[in-house]
């Protein structure tokens, strides 16, 4: 299969204008989080998050397609997704805002790290088993009232395949009997339909470098394919390993 990293490049002047839009849009987001959010309820916050993320996708030229999203429940669930890019979070939030679990490095990102903190992101240190246990407890508490999204690969990939899932973060769903929905994210060229690597945030790539690559690659599409949870049979116990395996198989097949 052939893959494309970009289509015809966006002219320099237009990209410069898009960078300005990103800066202004980010400032708007910071002001909203700082001034408005302390006075808003959950529904109002979700409205602002969804609108801000939709606008961000428009600036980057990303067209969103959703499959199976109408089946998502209104009650809390654990959302399990493959992970390709920093922009995955904004793509998901542009459709339906949820709380996220992210690697601790994200918290130190300029501006976007601060925004993630304000949005209630749960940060996890990948090198600390003790901290992972604390995150599991925190997730279990959040799942009582809100949905949470995890990226169990533990890192981002090119999106050509799915890396092995780590089962630890499935435990809150297992112990609380919270449904686990799976999500397959894929990016492609809208012109050719081929998978695009333009959004892949891998290796030593920096955030600004990744943004620049996406801006150079117009007419990108992203698809969110939601997949239903595993239902327990009579006498069956859905432990974290079984839930992990099921999600991995569903997402791998969809990718």
Descriptive terms for the model:
8 helices, 255 residues, Glycerol-3-phosphate (1)-acyltransferase, 40% helix, disordered N terminus, alpha/beta, 7-stranded mixed sheet
CATH class: Alpha Beta
Question: Spatial order of the strands in the main sheet?
Answer: 1-7-6-2-5-3-4
How do the SSEs run, as a string of H and E? HHEEHEHEHEHEHEH
How many helix segments?
8
Strand content: 15-25%
CATH topology: Glycerol-3-phosphate (1)-acyltransferase
Describe the structure.
The protein is α/β, with parallel strands linked by helices. The chain has a single domain, classed as Glycerol-3-phosphate (1)-acyltransferase (3-Layer(aba) Sandwich), CATH 3.40.1130. The protein is built from eight helices and seven strands; from the N terminus they run ααββαβαβαβαβαβα. It has a seven-stranded mixed β-sheet, sandwiched between helices. It starts with 11 loop residues before the first helix and ends with a helix.
